[in-house]
Design a protein that fits this description.
The chain is an alpha/beta fold. The chain has 12 helices and 10 strands. Helix 8 packs parallel to helix 9 and helix 10 runs antiparallel to helix 11. It is globular and about 60 Å long. InterPro entries: Elp3/MiaA/NifB-like_rSAM, MJ0683-like, rSAM, rSAM_sf.
């Protein structure tokens, strides 16, 4: 059982990190200064107050992103939100907030950008004469069913457009909110047009709460797998990221639990520490598992050619070396024993029909 350490300064309940770290594009670097008036103590007390989440509405010029990575099994992606309130400390998307001049630390999980015209832009893209359907994934960078979706319903509006166009898609999420959209996803799945992948990092609720503070609890994600599977929707499980000596010992148990809940396929990705994720994650280790921090990072470096991170195609998702190979074998053997497919669900591209470019406009006249 994981026992989190909260005694260290800078740990905020419900947040993955309290560190509003500078990003790599920052033009100014600030440091604390004691002016003799107790300002350092006041600042430390202020940091213990959990900041509220801010939603920033954005009208985007486009919503479809192409994929040129051979490591990823889809051609196109849609991410309705920038930043993610789930606050997963290991999230490889954190550095993307740097491009918004926001911190990959606390800002990433408290300042959420919502692409409010996403459905309109998707309709425009699918209606274009030159558009050719491809394998499309929703939520590959940040979770499309994070808390903001309850009110904004941007992801649902995207699925409505995809349903009209009979365009296949997959979703990856940690959220049980996806159950709300079974009425749309279920009929599409029956035509081989939809699949869902649920990310399940650990079965230990204490570890999940520390690693992924605002994501659904492990038992709730298992219930979501069961609910989706009973609705006839193919469900895969992503045991990602695999973190040595933290959630790695659970690999087989997580796969077993997901299979028992109804998952039919599985994959995993080893921990990645690009850019600002590296210092954020190492700080988290020192705060929560200081007795294991050095051992975990030593094993990470062993899989990354002696470095903290290796961004090369072909190895960035799997790692390299003896320990990475052992992980691959464990995953393969467990999936074989449990009857879990290692292949992604094949979706049918042939049903695509171009949607009306200006749906609803005729009602104005």
């Amino acid at each position: 059982m994981f026992v989190p350490r909260h005694a260290d300064a800078g740990v905020q309940k419900g947040r993955g990190t309290a560190w509003a770290m500078e990003h790599r594009f920052s033009s100014e670097n600030r440091s604390d200064f004691d002016d003799g008036w107790g300002t350092l103590q006041q600042a430390a007390q202020a940091e213990t107050l959990a900041p509220a989440t801010q939603l920033i509405e954005e009208n985007v010029r486009g919503i479809l992103s192409g994929n040129d990575s051979p490591d990823i099994g889809f051609d196109l992606s849609i991410n309705p939100y920038r930043g993610c309130e789930h606050g997963c400390i290991y999230c490889y998307a954190r550095p993307s907030h740097s491009y918004l001049n926001l911190s990959p630390g606390l800002d990433f999980e408290t300042r959420i950008v919502a692409k409010v015209n996403a459905a309109e832009k998707l309709r425009e893209a699918l209606s274009a004469r030159g558009y050719t359907p491809g394998q499309l994934n929703i939520g590959s960078v940040t979770d499309a069913y994070q808390p903001a979706e309850r009110r904004l319903r941007i992801t649902r509006s995207l699925i409505e457009v995809l349903s009209e166009a009979q365009h296949p898609f997959s979703v990856i999420t940690k959220s049980s909110l996806i159950e709300r959209d079974i009425d749309l996803i279920g009929p599409m799945a029956a035509q081989r047009l939809a699949a869902v992948y649920v990310s399940l990092t650990t079965l230990d609720p204490a570890l999940a709460r520390a690693l992924e503070p605002r994501a659904a609890a492990p038992h709730r994600r298992l219930r979501t797998i069961e609910t989706l599977a009973r609705a006839g929707i193919p469900v895969g499980v992503s045991v990602s990221p695999v973190i040595p000596f933290l959630n790695e010992p659970e690999l087989e148990k997580v796969l077993q639990a997901a299979r028992d809940a109804g998952a039919s396929s599985a994959f995993s990705i080893v921990l990645r520490l690009p850019w600002e994720v590296n210092p954020l994650f190492q700080q988290w280790l020192e705060q929560h598992v200081p007795e294991r921090a050095a051992r975990i990072m030593a094993r990470v470096r062993e899989m990354r050619g002696g470095k903290d991170n290796d961004a090369r195609f072909g190895t960035r998702m799997t790692g390299q070396g003896l320990w990475a190979e052992l992980l691959r074998q464990r995953l393969h053997k467990a999936c074989q024993r449990l009857g879990l497919s290692r292949r992604r669900v094949e979706l049918d591209l042939s049903r695509f029909r171009r949607p009306a470019a200006w749906a609803g406009q005729g009602q104005l006249f």
